[in-house]
């Protein structure tokens, strides 16, 4: 029960890694807000958690400042504070550099960077007002550690998240708020079906081949599963990481070392 009585907000929390983290947080004693842009996914996520009044679902569009502010206000009123934020909401797209559209570029930066930052800002402001510190965990990616030919924009957004984690961590630590990040590797979620289809299109591969190859290339011999990231999220949210600030923790089966 490392998170007993803590209040945690998980954006993009209705499925995949976000839902796995929400489930583990509940098991560790936290009260959890599943914040997501998809109402149907929220309902399904809450049903799978089956945690009663300890979990609520809220619709959140991280691209809308009013939506962010409304989410924070609702959580403050309902649970009386916020102790943990997991900034997990993100979108993905890929294309060769010569085919990247302005719409795709703007959308990825709007959600993955701008949305993440202003969600962090709003929650941090509430934490400062509470005067009890807090923990903020940004979800980045191994894609933020290097460039990839077909994933230029996404890689750039995730590199920005690593940089923001460092800057925000150094700024907010004076308020007792620890900002850190988790960098997953390749993760076996439903989104990978769409990713695999894009690789099939641009690399001329049969469907399923890219997913198989990236899994085999991981030193541990498989892709990550959503639950593989829950332990790191508990660590960075708990007192066990009280002296960890502005760091990005690689959780990728040995795929990237830094």
What does this protein structure show overall?
The protein has helices at 16-27, 39-49, 65-79, 102-130, 152-172, 191-203, 209-217, 230-237; strands at 7-11, 31-36, 55-59, 84-87, 134-139, 177-184, 248-251. With 258 residues, the protein is of the alpha/beta class. α2 links the parallel β2 (31-36) and β3 (55-59). α1 crosses α8, α3 runs parallel beside α4 and α4 (102-130) packs parallel to α5 (152-172). The radius of gyration is 18 Å and the shape is globular. The mean pLDDT is 96.
Q: Which terms summarize this structure?
A:
single chain, 258 residues, alpha/beta, Rossmann fold, seven-stranded parallel beta sheet, 46% helix
Write a concise synopsis of the structure shown.
This protein has 258 residues and is an alpha/beta fold. The protein contains eight helices and seven strands, in the order E-H-E-H-E-H-E-H-E-H-E-H-H-H-E.
